[in-house]
Amino acid sequence: MIRRARLIYNPSSGREEIKKRLPEILQRLEQGGIETSCHATTGEGDASAAAAEAIRRGFDIVIAAGGDGTLYEVINGMAGMENRPALGILPLGTTNDFARALGVPKQLDLACDLIIAGYAKPIDVGRANDKYFINIAGGGSMTELTYEVPSKLKTMIGQLAYYMKGLEKLPRLRPIELYVTAEGVEIHEEVMLFLVANSNSVGGFEKLAPDASLNDGMFDVLILRKCNLAEFIRLAGMALRGEHMNDPHVIYFQTKHLQITAIDNVQINLDGELGGVLPCTFEVLPSHLNIYMDETGKSAYGDHT
Fold first, then answer.
1. Domain DAGKc spans what residues (predicted)?
2. Which residues form the domain of 70?
3. Would you name the residues annotated as active-site residues?
4. How far apart are CA 169 and CA 180, in angstroms?
5. Which of 12, 27, 90, 243 is the most buried (most CB within 10 A)?
6. SS3 breakdown of the chain: % helix, strand, coil, rounded to 5?
7. pTM score, two decimals?
8. Are 273 and 157 members of one domain?
9. Is residue 29 part of a domain?
10. What are the pLDDT digits (tens) for 124-176?
11. What is the DSSP string of 156-172?
12. Cα separation, 190 vs 210, whole angstroms
C-alpha cells in the first residue's frame, strides 16, 4: 500500500546539504512505497504551520528534515492536533540532539530506510505552558546560548559555534532566584540553571540526564545551585563524563508535573529555541507522538550505547 508523506525541510540546515540531496531522498522514499511531497520553510513558525496543514490534508507521515529547531517547530504543529500521524526525522542540523537520542542515523539514506521500514514507537512529549518540546526545557545563563548563535554562523562552523559562544558567556554567569514546586518537592534557591529533560542527549552532552527515558511518562529535572566560575567549569567537565549527579551543587528528581517561577525575567529554552519566560507549568504528555526509529530502539530507551 502506498503511503503519503509530507517532507518539511529547512533549506539552510546542515550547511544547506538538503538542497543537494533532495532528489535522491525523494527517489529513495518513492522506491520504498512512500509518495512524498515537499514544503521548504521560509521563516520562523512556518514548519509548525506546514505540519498542522499536512495533518489537516490527511498525510500518513510527516517528515522533519533539518536540525533541532525544525524538529521543534514540526512537533509544535503536530502535538496539539487530535489526529497525529507518525513522524520521521532526517537529521541535518548542527547538534541533532533528539535524533541522536533516538538512534536515528546521521546518514540520510539510512534515516530514509528507517521511515520506509515503518517501525514507529510512541514517545512522551513535554508541554510548557502552551508550547511543546521533546528533548529538553531549561533556563539560566548557559541555556540562552542556543538562540544567541546566529544561524549563518551555525551553517558555517557547526558545533564549534556553540562552544565559542559558551566561552564568551562564562564570565557573565549569574544566579537566578527560583521557586520550584513538583510532586513532593518544594525548592526556593538561587541557581545557575535548571533543566527539564525528556531524553538523555542534551547539547552534545550524552550523559547529562543518564536515567532519562523517552517513554517513562516522567521528566528528569536537574537544577544547578549557585556556584562560582571555577566550580561551574569543574561541573561542566564532570557532566561530560556523567559524573555530576552526586555532586552537592546538583539537585535531581523525577516528576510528571512541575511549576517554576522566578523573581527576575527568566527566558525558557525549549529544544534549543526561545519558548517564552517564567512562570511556567511543565507537564508530561505520555506516549503522545509516534516516531520512526530503529526497531531495537536501544539509545531511545535508556540503553544508550
1. 1-132
2. 3-118
3. 273
4. 25
5. 90
6. 35, 35, 30
7. 0.85
8. yes
9. yes
10. 999 999 999 998 898 886 555 454 555 555 555 454 554 455 555 555 678 89
11. HHTHHHHHHHHHHHGGG
12. 24
